[in-house]
Each structure stands twice: as structure tokens, then as C-alpha cells.
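Before our next group meeting I need something from you. Please put the record directly below this note.
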Amino acid sequence: MKKKNMMALAVAAALGLGVLPPAADAVSTRDIEQKRGEIDALRSKRSEVQEQISEAQKNIEALQSQQKQVANDIEKLNMAIEETSGKIRNVSVDIDQTEQAIDELKQEIAEIQERIEKRNEILKERLRSLQESGGTISYLQVLLGAQSFSDFIDRMSAVTTIMEADQQIIREQEADKALKEKKEAELTEKRNKLQADLQELKQLQSKLAGQLEQKNRLMADLKQREEEEHDHKMALEEEKELIAKQEAAVKQQLAELERQKRAEEAAKQRARTYTWSDSGEASSGETPSGGSTPPVSSGAFTRPANGPITSGFGYRFGGTDFHPGVDIGKRAAVVPVVAAADGIVFRSYYSSSYGNVIFISHVINGQTYTTVYAHLEARLVGEGQHVRKGQVIGYMGNTGHSTGPHLHFELHRGGWNEAKTNAVNPLDYIPF
């Protein structure tokens, strides 16, 4: 009986030790603290991105406020242009009426001129008569030449009539000349003033049109800046969501490490069987049909898909564009994509740039890595799912900003960020 009990204890101890990971893989307090540090860093980064989102929203609101003010200015300018155009129409009508009045005045002036010329003929006739008489006839001589008193009275009346007629002719001549000059001066002055007013209004209209064009350009610029700010805000919100997913994945990893740590300590303390199961992991035993999967290589990472590398890591196009990963070309109708290492899917969605994309977080020898699989035709894993190295997670495609069917694959030593500062060359880690 005692021998059986000893045997049972030995078996129990053997089973208890058997479920522990190798010594090199044992969970340490340092591993746990490192995960907590990663969570704090991600939380801080998420808070920083949220501040940037708030700042972007403020910029959007400021731009919208400026657009509202510019819209008011444009409305005022349009009203001013409309009012000026009305004044131009009115002045143009006045000018037309003045021109018509000038034409009528020309007719009046012609009549006045005709009267003046007729009087000139009368005066010339008087002068001619005077010359024919030798220039000696005068009103006094006419009176003194009377033969009788009655003749004197008649001559006096005639002379008076002639004198008054001559004076009337002269007065009328002077009045017509003055009237002609006055009317000509008035209409000329009025026409000149109207022409000046019209020119001034046209200059004002041109100035207002220039201001309106400037305001319209400013409005277009403000709308463009608002659109860019909206795009920036959307990118930040997407980054924030990715960070939140990363944080959730790291928290899940931390919980797993803590669970393993407790399991190790319990196994050591109690020296009894402890059944460990990872219920959250997805099965990796089967490979979906539809093409060959790359062989799973030894080491930390394996190749994510079959096919030639069509674009490498680093700067390209003459140093104007940084490529944070490698592109694997599609050379079959259906090309499966596999997880490069064990890990947790913390983001699986459709991105405007990446298309169908999967983000996986890995912890290898205490170091966090992130892999990205972009432009997929289809995704087979969801967020929060555990995947195994070599497990099919999707199929190569041509979604998002893609110039042809391929897999864009990124490897980051640490967490993923928008600037991709943690990106490393996958060829330095994976045997392609």
C-alpha cells in the first residue's frame, strides 16, 4: 500500500512538471512587468492620440467658423456687386437720356443759330445802307431834315421805332448767344459728370469682383483644409482604435502570463497534475482548401505566403517613398496567407488604405512583435482570436490602395504606430 502511494506521488509529480514550459520559457516577474509597461505605454499613446483628435476637431470647427464668416463676406460682396450693377444701369440710362437731350439741344441751337444769322443779315443790311449813304446819315440828321412840325413828329416816331428795333435785335442776339452757351455748358457738364460716375462705378464693380474672386479662392482653400483635417482626424481615430486593440491584446497576453505564472507556482507548490488549456486559441490543425501554404520553418517566424518578393523594405522610387514592409506577388489563382508566428489578432477589418487587413501581436522571448497582412481578398480570423504559426488567416488579394494582386507584409519590433517607426526588414527575421 505504501509502495502504491509512493508510485502515485511520483506519477503526480511527473505530470505536474510535465505541463510546465521549459526553463527558458518560464514566466518571470520581469515578463509580467514588461507587459504592464507596454499597457501603460499604449494607454499613454492612446491618450496622446485622443488629444490630437480633439485638436483636429478644434481645427475643423475653426475652419468651419472661418468659412461661415467668408460666406457672409461673399454674400455682402454679391449684394454690393448687384447694387453697383443697378447703379451702372441707371447711370447708363441717364447718359442715354442726356445724349438724347444733347441731340434735342443741337436742334434748338441750330434754330437759335438760324435766328442769329437772320439778325446778322438785318444788321449787315443796316450797315450796308449806312455805307451807301456815305456814312453821314444819322438819327439827328433825319430829325433835322423835317419840313414841318408834323413831319418832325413823324420822323421822331420813325427814328424811335428804328432805334428800339435795333436795340431789340441786339438784345435778342445777345440773349440767344448766352442761352446757347449756357445750354451747351450745362449739358456738357452733365454728360461729363455722368461719364465720370459711370467710370467710377465700373472701377468699383471691378474692385468688388476682384474681392469676390479672392474670397471664393479663400473659401475653396478653407474647404480643402477642412477636408484634409477630416482625413487627418479619421486617420487618428483609426490609429486610436488600433492602439486600443493592441492594448486589449497585450492585456490578454498579460492575463495569460499571469495565469501561466500562477499555474507554474501552483504546480511547484502542490506537485500535482494541473491541466492547462488555452480555450481562446483557434484551431490550427487544418488548412483551408484553395492553394498551397508555405512550409512552416523553424525559428520564431515563418514565411506568410508563397510567391516572389516584388518590392522590398526601405526607400524606393529614388528615395521619395519609404516602404515599411515587403510585397509578395500573387502567382496563383488562390494564394493562402498564414500567420508568421503564434499570436493574438488584435485588429481585423477593412481599411481605406490597407484594404482587408489583419494585425497580429506576438510575444517571442519576452519581446513584443506586430505583423501586418494587407490587401487581402478575404479574412478568416477575427479580433481577439489566438492563431498558431502557419495557420491560414486569409487569402492574397488586391483591396485598398493596391496596384495589383499581392500581399503587403509588415513586421514591427514592438507595437504598430502610424509613423511605423518600429518597422524592421522581414528578411532579417524570416527565411524567404
Remarks:
- Confidence is low (pLDDT under 50) at residues 1-24, 272-290.
- The two ends are 59 Å apart (CA to CA).
